[in-house]
Every structure is written in structure tokens, then in C-alpha cells.
Design brief:
about 475 residues, mainly alpha, MgtE N-terminal fold, CBS-domain, Tetracycline Repressor, domain 2, 3 domains, two-stranded antiparallel sheet, 22 helices, 5 strands
Length: about 475
């Protein structure tokens, strides 16, 4: 998702304060509207004026806000109030606000707009921004947009939509400045002064030949501080980080972080300049990936509107809950197998939750390390075995330490050396099971082309619960009963 709006006159203030102000005006508006309905036209005249004044105050507030702040407000309001605010927002901001909102909230806003409104809102955006909204737009709106766009932008839009969401091409923008190598810095400066404004995050100009092949970059600071008569070919740098449109977007984020980039050119296999990626798009991608990972770890299928209808939220959450329910039945049956042992030694029932709880946390720690290593590209086939051995070692030591502490606790409470020994052994074995699953489950998901963060902790925790119970109760049955 791109962010290209820049309202410099907007006050720096916590968006939560704007939200509270909007909620206050909406509540006043709702209260006055109720009074107007209860009274006749003459008696309600004063309230009607107040009603219009509240809406006017709300309009004035929304007019000075950045689209990102308005998006934050819309995401924080229930559906009925959200649509009131959306109706008041100026039409020329609609496209920018749609870009800023989450996918789930954007869907509710687009549902209230007819085709002409959507075409007008998105027609003001750049091709790469329209591509961000394209998956949520009706097909007839996209057709109208293609017909209304100039040929160059139409081709840019078609190119942007051809790349998957996790490719560099999906982050690529087309708003950039190119220059030739055979001109002087003074000519370049005059050319820039003729522009209305520079594209956002312009830290360097791209030097291309007559076939649009990228041959170097001219940093803005070099342009400003050097002799105006110097040639671009002399002052440009041929050292640059080039991206390709089919590269994984994750690779671009690593490059921006590693080399402290603000912008990077995107070229095809022949080095023809196609566009550029800015730190703005990279930051948006990182944020979205982080949010998606958090949702996946919680077992949510997709981003959810905070005020979505109950049934829609149920559909978003039911899958992993159903899996949890199934694994809970399995854990229950594992315990049921050892009912006789538990009846003979009631202490087992009191100690079981300790095994499952600490073992599950150990597994989640391993998962977090593995998922992070996969995301950063640090984990590969050559070092996977060493990492596996390392996690086994860590879990073995942690298991012995925690097991000894828990064993001592069991001895102090129940004064049973054998029970204390069983607790220590069960804790150690459960930690080893957690390490094995914590490595294998994310790696298996990654190998099959799935997001390794998707439900890994849910699956591992569920298996560790059942496995931990089986290990503990099995050892107790063999050694104590």
C-alpha cells in the first residue's frame, strides 16, 4: 500500500485526540437528531440548527486531517458512525483515504459507493496506487479506469497488477526523475526547477541512456554542492542497489535495511528502468507483514474489521478454533487413558498443568526463532541441522533446570522422591518434544510454500499438551503406580 499524501499544514497531534473529538461531535449530533424527531417543526428549529452546526464542526475537523488520520478514525468507529463520517469527507480525499484504511474497513466503505464515485476517487491516484486498490474494486470500475487513463499510465497499471503481492513489482512506483549522462548539472537543475514538485522521497535521480537503460544514479546532494558545469557522466555513481520486479519483496526490505536506502531503482533483465521502490512502500510492506504474522500466530485467517458483523467474524476465526477443539478432545482422551493412575495418585492431576504450560511456552520460543530466521533468510539447508542440534541442546538444558525446580516443588509439597523424579524427567522430555516440533512444523510449512507463522504455535502447543500429558502420566504409571 502506498502513501503519497503530504499535508504539511496539518497539526502534529495524537490521532486519538481527533478520534475523541469526532466521537463527541457524533454523539451530540445523534442526541440532537433524536430531539428533532420528537418535536414539531417549529419547536425543533433550534435543535435543527444545532444539528447542522455539529455537522459543520465535524466537516471542518475532517478537512484539516491527513488521510491517514481519517483512516484511523474510520477504523475506530462502529459501522453506522463510520458511514456518517465517510459521507462527510470531501470527495477529493476518498481515494487517498481508501489507500490508508485496512482491507477489511475499505471493503465496507467501497460497498457504499457507486461506480461513478469509485471511478472519480481512484482516477485521481497514480497507477501504482490504483493497483493497490484493484483487488477490492468491482470489475466494471476497473474497466472504466483503464479506458479513462492515458496510454502510458494504463500500461503502468497493467504492469503493476501483473505482479503478486509479495513481489517487488507490487511495491514499485512509476513517479521518478530521469536524466541523461551527457548534460551538465546546471541543465539538470534548470530541468528540476521547471517541475511543479519532486516525487516524494527523491534522494537521487536516475541516469538513463536513450533506450531507458539505467547506467547510474545522481544523488541530490551531489547535484547541489558541485560545479554546475560538471557533466552528469562525471558526477554520477555507478554503484547502486538494483531490484528486479520479480524479486521477493522481503529481499527488498532486507536491502533497504542493510544499505540504509531511501529509494532503489527497479530494472528488467536488460537493465531497462521500470520504476522505483521507496522506503515508504517498504515500511508499509513491513507493517502489513508484521500484522499478518500476528494474525496468523493467533490463528486468524485474515485481517478483521473491529466492528465486523458477528457472522463474518465467526467465519474468520472458526478454523483454528475447530482444530483446537479437536486437539483438546485428543488431550482429554490421553488423560482418560490414565484415569486409573490419576485415581491412585491424585497429585498427578495437580501437577499436569505445569508440564503443559511450560512446555508450550518453550515450543513457542523455538517457533519464534525459526520463523524469524526464515523471514530474514538466515536459515537454509546447509545450517538447518546445526540449528536443530542447537535448539535440542538449549531445550535439554532448560528442561533439566526447570524440571529440577518443578521436581523440588513436588517433593516439598508431596514428600515423594519418586514423584519428584518423574516430574523432572517429564519436564525434560516435554522440552525436547517442544524443540523438535518448534523446528519441524515451521520448516515443513515453509517447504510446502505456506506461511510458517500460520498457526504454527497453535499446532505445536496442542501437540505438546497431549504429548506432555502422555509423557508425564506414562512415566508416572510405569514408575509410581
Amino acid at each position: 500500500m502506498t502513501r503519497k499524501t503530504d499535508h504539511n499544514d496539518n497539526k502534529t497531534e495524537d490521532p486519538k485526540q481527533y478520534l475523541q473529538r469526532v466521537i463527541y461531535l457524533l454523539s451530540k449530533n445523534k442526541l440532537v437528531a433524536g430531539f428533532v424527531q420528537m418535536q414539531d417543526q417549529r419547536q425543533g428549529l433550534g435543535e435543527s440548527i444545532i444539528h447542522e452546526q455539529n455537522l459543520f464542526e465535524l466537516q471542518e475537523l475532517l478537512d484539516i486531517l491527513h488521510p491517514a488520520d481519517i483512516a484511523y478514525i474510520l477504523e475506530s468507529l462502529p459501522l453506522d458512525e463510520r458511514l456518517i463520517v465517510w459521507e462527510i469527507v470531501k470527495a477529493d480525499q476518498d481515494g487517498e483515504i481508501l489507500l490508508e484504511t485496512s482491507d477489511a474497513v475499505r471493503e465496507t466503505l467501497i460497498a457504499t459507493m457507486d461506480s461513478s464515485e469509485l471511478v472519480a476517487a481512484t482516477g485521481q491516484l497514480d497507477a501504482d496506487e490504483i493497483a493497490d486498490l484493484a483487488p477490492d474494486l468491482p470489475s466494471n470500475v476497473l474497466d472504466d479506469l483503464f479506458q479513462n487513463l492515458p496510454i502510458e499510465e494504463r500500461e503502468q497499471l497493467r504492469a503493476a497488477m501483473s505482479y503478486p503481492e509479495d513481489a517487488v513489482g507490487a511495491l514499485m512506483g512509476f513517479d521518478m526523475v530521469t536524466v541523461r549522462e551527457d548534460v551538465s548539472l546546471e541543465v539538470v537543475s534548470r530541468y528540476l526547477r521547471r517541475l511543479e514538485e519532486l516525487p516524494d522521497h527523491t534522494d537521487q535521480l536516475f541516469v538513463v541512456d536513450r533506450n531507458e537503460k539505467l547506467i547510474g544514479v545522481l544523488p541530490i546532494n551531489v547535484l547541489l554542492v558541485n560545479d554546475p558545469d560538471a557533466k552528469v557522466s562525471v558526477m554520477m555513481s555507478k554503484k547502486m542497489t538494483k531490484l528486479h520486479p520479480n524479486d521477493k519483496a522481503q529481499q527488498a526490505t532486507h536491502a533497504f535495511e542493510r544499505y540504509n536506502l531511501v529509494t532503489a531503482p527497479v530494472v528488467d533483465t536488460d537493465d531497462k528502468l521500470l520504476g522505483r521502490v521507496t522506503v515508504n512502500e517498504v515500511m508499509d510492506f513491513i507493517r502489513e507483514e508484521s500484522e499478518n504474522e500476528a494474525l496468523n500466530l493467533a490463528g486468524l485467517r485474515e485481517e478483521e474489521d473491529l466492528f465486523a458483523p458477528v457472522w463474518k467474524s465467526i467465519k474468520n476465526r472458526w478454523m483454528w478454533l475447530a482444530i483446537n477443539l479437536a486437539t483438546a478432545f485428543i488431550a482429554s482422551r490421553v488423560i482418560g487413558v490414565f484415569e486409573g493412575s490419576i485415581e491412585k495418585l491424585v497429585a498427578l492431576a495437580a501437577l499436569m498443568p505445569i508440564i503443559a504450560s511450560i512446555g508450550g511456552n518453550s515450543g513457542n520460543q523455538t517457533i519464534t526463532m525459526i520463523v524469524r530466521a526464515l523471514a530474514l533468510g538466515h536459515l537454509n539447508t546447509s545450517n538447518a541441522r546445526k540449528l536443530f542440534a542447537k535448539e535440542i541442546g538449549v531445550s535439554a538444558v532448560n528442561g533439566l533446570v526447570c524440571g529440577s525446580v518443578v521436581g523440588l516443588f513436588a517433593f516439598l509439597i508431596y514428600e515423594n522422591v519418586s514423584l519428584s523424579l518423574v516430574m523432572t524427567m517429564a519436564m525434560t522430555l516435554t522440552f525436547l518434544l517442544a524443540a523438535i516440533l518448534g523446528v519441524l512444523v515451521p520448516l515443513a510449512l515453509y517447504r510446502f510454500g505456506r506461511d510458517p507463522a500460520t498457526g504454527s504455535n497453535i499446532v505445536v502447543t496442542a501437540v505438546i499438551d497431549s504429548g506432555g500429558f502422555f509423557i508425564f502420566l506414562g512415566l508416572a504409571t510405569i514408575l509410581l503406580i
